[in-house]
Backbone:
């Protein structure tokens, strides 16, 4: 069974930084593109960023480009999201999610997200 | 960016009745459309991929259809455990992948 467990969420001041982590189990982590999706309190889902299975390609939403950095450590089955210059509008639950199809069969591309973690809450105080 | 528009915002359905949810894309996405169910305090759960393919373990009362820009999720014989918010996701044109704003399904 695939399991994704996020951590690192916190209450922080605007302008601060955080690093979120997502530890995976039950899958060959290094074979799958991974993504972060966030959900502001009481709101809908917003894609944030994706990274290729090898870690050499990344994509970002315009709203976070230049402030967020996605990375991964395949030796530790862990996905990261470094967040800088936090704003009140970054307050959200951050979910990590796995793409449905593995590389190399699937090249880095638009991800259908099939497994999600339970999320970690980031609260930014202005 | 492909804008996804879901309707209605809220749907109240009697137990055992059918719920019909719609999702419209601002441009064609072929069949690259997924549906998710999210219950309070939980992560989204994949129900349907490629517009009409049920994910593993999803009951047969959930079905999806559509192509191009118009898509539909039908929940036949609504059960109490189906109360949730349902989101559509387009993954045919990125970045970004984009979600609809959600349809809340309640029991009447």
Residues:
């Amino acid at each position: 069974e695939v399991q994704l467990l996020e951590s690192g969420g916190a209450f922080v001041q605007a302008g601060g930084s955080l690093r979120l982590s997502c530890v995976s189990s039950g899958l060959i982590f290094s074979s799958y593109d991974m993504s972060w999706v966030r959900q502001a309190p009481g709101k809908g889902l917003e894609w944030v960023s994706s990274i290729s299975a090898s870690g050499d390609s990344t994509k970002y939403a315009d709203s976070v480009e230049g402030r967020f950095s996605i990375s991964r450590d395949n030796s530790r089955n862990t996905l990261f999201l470094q967040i800088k210059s936090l704003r009140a509008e970054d307050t959200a639950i951050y979910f990590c999610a796995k793409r449905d199809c593995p590389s190399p069969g699937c090249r880095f591309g638009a991800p259908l997200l099939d497994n999600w973690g339970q999320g970690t809450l980031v609260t930014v105080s202005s | 960016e492909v804008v996804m528009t879901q309707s209605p915002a809220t749907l109240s359905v009697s137990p055992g009745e059918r719920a019909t949810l719609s999702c419209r894309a601002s441009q064609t996405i072929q069949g690259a459309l997924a549906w998710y169910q999210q219950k309070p305090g939980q992560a989204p759960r994949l129900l349907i991929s490629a517009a009409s393919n049920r994910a593993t373990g999803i009951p047969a009362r959930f079905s999806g259809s559509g192509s191009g820009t118009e898509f539909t999720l039908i929940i036949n014989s609504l059960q109490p455990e189906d109360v949730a918010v349902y989101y559509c996701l387009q993954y045919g044109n990125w970045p970004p992948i984009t979600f609809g704003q959600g349809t809340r399904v309640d029991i009447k």
User: Anything to note?
Assistant: The two ends of chain A are 40 Å apart (CA to CA). Chain A is about 0% helix and 50% strand. The first strand of chain A starts at residue 3 and ends at 7. Chain A touches chain B through 22 residues (CB under 8 Å).
